[in-house]
Amino acid sequence: MRIIETKTYEELSVLAADILTEQLKRKPDSVLGLATGSSPIGMYEVLVDRYQKGEVDFSRVTSVNLDEYIGLNGDHPQSYRYFMDTHLFNLVNIDKSRTFVPNGLTTDGERDGLLYDEHIESLGGIDLQLLGVGYDGHIGFNEPSDTFVVHTHVETLDPSTIEANARFFSSADEVPKQAMTMGLGSIMKAKKILLIASGEKKAKVLREAFSGKVNPRIPASVLQLHPDVTVIISEK
User: pTM (2 decimals)?
Assistant: First the structure.
């Protein structure tokens, strides 16, 4: 595991964009595992700017997203499909027919979760998986638990996660209570993992995750077992 500490979020965003840019130069048809939330917005802005300057090409990329809220369709402003369209997909030359997000309108989470995992396998797996981390150590929407959930599944969100995400909604009452998320086994199959986190609170939970034993109560701790993880942390 390689841990890089930066002073600012802007530095973090550039370094993360450097890693994705290098991945696409090395393998233009990469399968990228992408994440949403506030952490990757700066990185996506850097990548869009580089695309506009002709420095990075998304035309052969396939993407699979980590998660989606249950009950939101892709046109909902708070859905993660909408987030990706707004911050990246509509702004670069990616083929949107090769961009995949879990089904937030599923009526059979177990079936659709297994289909999502099978689809990732059919693509040859994820070349580079981008992650953020929650204040409780969750990655994707894999909340603290007594066991690690392996496959893509519907997760009931912890009250602390709902509270943290309420800033994106009019109130906490509007935050969906469940999400479809890649399981930790699915994430760990990625060839490379890049985790980004900003602020002292995120740094604190990552210290707990990486300095102790692997523990499903801190889901990010499972990354200790992956052979190729880069973590970028900023002070602010």
Answer: 0.95
* Choice among 67, 68, 112, 117 that is catalytic: 67
Select which of 68, 127, 138, 155 is catalytic. Answer: 138
pLDDT of residue 105: 96
67 is an active site residue? yes
Domain 2-234 has CATH 3.40.50.1360: yes
Predicted pLDDT of residue 47: 98
Which is nearest to 197 in space by CA: 125, 135, 150, 128? 135
pLDDT over 90 (residue 164): no
- Annotated catalytic residue: which of 10, 45, 57, 136? 136
How far is the CA of 22 from the CAs of 1, 15, 30, 165, in angstroms?
18, 11, 11, 31
Q: Would you kindly state where each structural domain of the chain is located, as residue ranges?
A: 2-234
pLDDT of residue 171: 86
